[in-house]
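Support case: adenosine-2'-monophosphate complex. Customer-provided input:
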Amino acid sequence: METPSDRRRAVGVSPPRDQGIPQQRVFFALWPRAETQVALHECAVGLHAQCGGRLLRRETLHVTLAFLGEQAPDRVELLRRIAAGQVGKASDLVLDHCGSWHEHRIVWTGPQRTPEQLVDLAQALNAALRADGFAIDRRPFSAHVTLLRNARRAPPPVSTKPVFWRVDSFVLVASELGREGARYRIIDRWPLADA
Ligand code: 2AM
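Agent response - structure generated as follows:
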């Protein structure tokens, strides 16, 4: 069974291109507003009581659109240009079920139905990234928010209280490793047009 660290080794992490130039570990994501963060956190706390493991911090919760790994500054600039060229549409995401991966260690919430505007955005962005030579995971986009890591049990097979999320922008994020785990910093944000 593939583990998250296998996955990290397998995709997205390009070899250092410019020795000595600091690289940034970056990814594109959907980032919730404060009220959605609160609702996601409540869902995570409920699941934590049942599954155990490590509760991810409220301010770090997100949906990953594309993970790029370590990138040099010129490539980060190119990522911004690629993002600015996207013509995505806003959508309403309803996170109404949960599941687990990797022998239940990763517990997530996701939509039963992913809005087509969001699938289109993820596909167009990933295609543009590949066209510019970025090594991207080839698996189809699966919208989810990771809520727990190192969980001990699968979540119960019942629907969770739905979390409503108006997705009207996407972001490029830098992941910086600190003492208390990954710290995320939003580098830039691009709006999605109302449909
Ligand atoms: P996740 O979205 O399934 O939780 C930042 O590391 C984010 O990128 C995490 O949220 C993580 O998983 C996602 N991600 C996807 N592929 C990754 C990889 N190869 N290495 C690290 N993180 C990855």
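The chain has four helices and ten strands.

Case will auto-close in a few days if no follow-up is received.
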